[in-house]
Design brief:
The chain has 703 residues and is mostly helical. It contains 29 helices and 9 strands. It has a 5-stranded mixed sheet with strand order 3-4-5-9-6. Strands 1-2 form a two-stranded antiparallel sheet. The longest helix has 32 residues, at 318-349.
């Protein structure tokens, strides 16, 4: 009866779609056949918004049929006919989802956002229909209970373990009444998450600091003024300058603007994102999400959402996460307080007797960096031209792993700003496709990330190679000046490239385990270890070349970079760790009371002693990692992985930056393995022992 009701609801939804959708045939929809492109990269030029909903509905229908066939198979349940069959199901749904959800992040519009709101509850219901399918779970359970007798290899064992656990965590063991509550929570959470992200994007796009008087440009270097002029032109404000809340615009303005009142205005615009009491306010949404997560966790037998999430991570418990953060906080906060005192003295010497405020920190720390190290971003940026950095990054991967990159103009791209590369393994065979998208736009959310348009896995016909995407938000070229990066942006590019390598070099049989399908606090190891190469003198001299003269970066500049690498680390570490505490505080709640977000957040920051001159990196209303992304109870994972990456990079420092044996071990034990084995076991296979925290604290200058 329930299945009939679902079918009726889906049918009614189809009938309510536009006439374009009603009249569409399979021939018209690019998702219904193989993409007629090189390596079957999605036909972005042919995919239109009206193609998505029919393909989503058809994909769900097809997978529902595949699941029914597995659940009602008259043969005894086996690893192949149940576990592998489940992993192979839903190929059309995955195909349309991979394109759609990448577009919602990087190239959205009102039509795409509406589809996202409509499809979110349908997908939540579809997934629940699978996870709560009693006949299917009974078959999975029988295979699981017989796992010691069926001769599985380690990867097959892990697929069985994860599949079984996925169903248990998906509510399969709940009684019927609790399953209905579980469904309702999942439906609400899916919709609220989409709404949170839409609100944040709208708020980010709406803020503009418009400057008309040239006196208000005081202190801004030419590259910052050129960026402001370019953004003004794009907004149709000729003869003016516009600064936005996108990081390539926001951060340089805070670093260089002599106008304290304008720094305050743009800074407050940022820290009050989606917290303005308007239609895009996220405070009630965040509180409701946190409350619903408590309900869901407790239905599954966990005290808190953090207990539920961390049980599936390396950390395992909230106490272990708090233990790590407490260690770091104890070392970082005194350093940040000393930094504050130094900046306050500089501010007074500058003729300002007021207290240092959060919008002053970036400005005076940049002045102090220049004073102490004769170094600033304006001096460095000419050496970090985007294409040179990209070439250097590719060279690092070639030296480490033997892979090479060739730009392909014939491969479809999701946006005109993007570029596509074919990746070859050391023997010349095709390894992957890499799509890179560098510049901000109103249709793209802020930040940087890696994703995929196709997972790597092995089918009956051979290896299916991955299609990976890297998305950033760097300054666009302005006039004759190419895109020039700060060193922080260079590090970000290497970071996301590490994720891309994890996806591109995957060598797994099953989709559930491939690429970056690992625990949240392990997934950042490949990304963060790559950042280390970006700052090594040997690597810098290979790609950091002045964009006008072609001269390599001078040794004395590299020495200054090295000397200043721990500058402002108290601030950076405190700002980040405070966000980790905020995330965990929201998700160690054990009651479902919906709280006032600002009051809760203040109490959380007061508890750890966050100084008022530093604002937590992500305040609750724009903390999309945890309320619209996959990092709830997991923001700490960057810090957890810092321990791993600092310890792991020591192996390269000991044996040589490009030592083939060490690099091959990292590839074989980390990058190729995906989630096929326990992450700590994989780490020990590479390093020979568990990681130690001291290399990370030492690298930050905290010990």
């Amino acid at each position: 009866m329930k299945n009939l009701l679902i079918l009726f609801a889906v049918t009614m939804f189809i009938l309510s779609c536009s006439s374009n959708q009603k009249n569409m045939t399979e021939k018209d929809n690019p998702f219904y056949s193989k993409y007629n492109t090189s390596f079957e990269v999605p036909s972005f030029d042919k995919i239109l918004p009206e193609h998505f909903m029919p393909a989503f509905l058809e994909g769900m229908k097809q997978q529902a049929g595949e699941i029914a066939a597995i659940a009602h198979n008259s043969d005894d349940p086996s690893f192949e006919n149940t576990i592998v069959a489940k992993d192979r199901s839903g190929q059309l749904l995955a195909k349309v989802s991979d394109v759609f959800f990448n577009l919602t992040s990087a190239n959205t519009n009102a039509e795409i956002q509406k589809i996202a709101r409509d499809v979110a509850p349908l997908l939540a219901s579809h997934n629940d229909n699978i996870n709560l399918n009693t006949e299917l779970f009974n078959r999975i359970k029988k295979v699981y209970e017989n796992k010691l007798n069926i001769g599985l290899n380690p990867e097959q064992t892990m697929l069985l373990e994860k599949t079984y656990k996925e169903f248990v965590r998906g509510g399969a063991n709940l009684n019927k009444s609790d399953q209905e509550k579980f469904r309702a929570i999942n439906k609400d959470l899916s919709s609220l998450s989409v709404q949170f992200g839409d609100n944040l994007l709208a708020e980010t796009n709406e803020f503009r600091l418009v400057i008309e008087n040239t006196d208000d440009l005081a202190g801004l270097p030419d590259f910052v003024k050129a960026l402001g002029q370019s953004d003004a032109k794009a907004a149709g404000l000729v003869g003016k300058w516009v600064f936005t809340l996108n990081k390539p615009s926001l951060i340089p303005f805070l670093q260089y603007s002599d106008k304290r009142e304008l720094r305050e205005k743009i800074f407050k615009g940022y820290i009050n994102l989606a917290n303005n009491g308007n239609e895009h306010d996220n405070t009630a949404i965040a509180s409701k999400i946190a409350s619903l997560r408590v309900k869901k966790a407790q239905l599954l037998g966990y005290r808190t959402w953090a207990d539920f999430i961390l049980d599936d991570n390396m950390a395992k418990t909230p106490d272990k996460v708090y233990g790590l953060m407490d260690q770091v906080w104890k070392a970082a906060l005194p350093k940040a307080q000393l930094e504050k005192e130094e900046l306050q003295k500089m501010m007074i010497a500058d003729g300002h007797n007021e207290n240092l405020e959060a919008w002053d920190w970036w400005y005076y720390s940049e002045k102090l960096r220049k004073q102490n190290y004769d170094l600033d971003d304006e001096l460095l940026k000419p050496y970090f031209e985007l294409n040179n950095v990209k070439t250097g990054m590719f060279d690092v991967a070639t030296k480490l792993f033997g892979i090479t990159f060739k730009e392909r103009s014939d491969i479809p791209k999701p946006h005109e700003d993007a570029s596509a590369y074919e990746v070859f393994d050391g023997d010349g065979t095709h390894q992957a496709i890499l799509i890179m998208d560098f510049f901000p736009r109103e249709s793209k959310r802020s930040g940087a990330w890696m994703s995929n348009y196709r997972d790597q896995f092995k089918s009956g016909t051979g290896n299916v190679t991955p299609i990976i995407t890297m998305v950033m938000n760097f300054s666009k070229p302005v006039g004759d000046t190419p895109s020039l990066l700060t060193f922080e942006e260079v590090s970000t590019m290497f970071h996301e490239f590490g994720h891309a390598l994890h996806g591109m070099l995957s060598d797994c049989t099953y989709k559930l385990l491939s690429g970056t399908s690992v625990s949240r606090d392990f997934v950042e190891l490949p990304s963060q270890i790559m950042e280390n190469w970006a700052g090594e003198p040997e690597v810098l001299q290979s790609f950091a070349k002045h964009y006008k003269t072609g001269e390599p970066i001078p040794v004395e500049l590299i020495d200054k970079m090295k000397a200043s690498q721990n500058f402002n680390q108290g601030f950076a570490t405190v700002e980040f760790t405070a966000a980790g505490y905020l995330d965990l505080n929201w998700h160690t709640l054990s009651d479902t009371v919906q709280r006032d977000v600002n009051t809760f957040e203040k109490a959380a920051m007061d508890k750890i002693g966050l100084i008022p001159e530093i604002v937590v990196r992500y305040r609750t209303p724009y903390f999309s990692h945890i309320f619209a992304g996959g990092y709830s109870s997991g923001y700490y994972s960057y810090q957890w992985a810092e321990v791993l990456d600092a310890d792991a990079f020591e192996a390269f420092k000991e044996n040589g930056l490009f030592d083939k044996e060490t690099a091959n071990s990292f590839r074989k034990n980390i990058l190729e393995k995906g989630g096929t084995e326990d992450p700590m076991k994989l780490y020990i296979q590479f390093r020979g022992s568990e990681p130690k925290i001291e290399p990370m604290l030492k690298r930050k200058g905290l010990i």
